Amino acid sequence: MSVTYQPKKKKRARKHGFLKRMSSSGGKRIITHRRRKKRKKLSP
User: Fold this and answer.
1) Mapped to the 3 state alphabet, what secondary structure does 1-44 carry?
2) Which of 13, 14, 17, 24, by CA, is between 20 and 30 Å from 7?
């Protein structure tokens, strides 16, 4: 049996990171809501 999940920071950042969020209107909305909640981390 192999371990399936082998995380890569760059790939994660490219897919779910701040710049990716800000590139779409829906993502901007997510960031706004997270700011309103005073989240420490807005996106990974």
Assistant:
1) CCCCCCCCHHHHHHHHCHHHHHCCHHHHHHHHHHHHCCCCCCCC
2) 24
What is the Rg, in whole angstroms, of the alpha carbon atoms belonging to the chain? Answer: 13
Q: Tell me the C-alpha distance between 30 and 42, whole Å.
A: 9
Nearest to 42 by CA among 19, 15, 24, 23: 19
Per-residue pLDDT tens for 1-44? 788 999 999 999 999 999 999 999 999 999 999 999 999 999 88
The whole model's pTM is what? Answer: 0.74
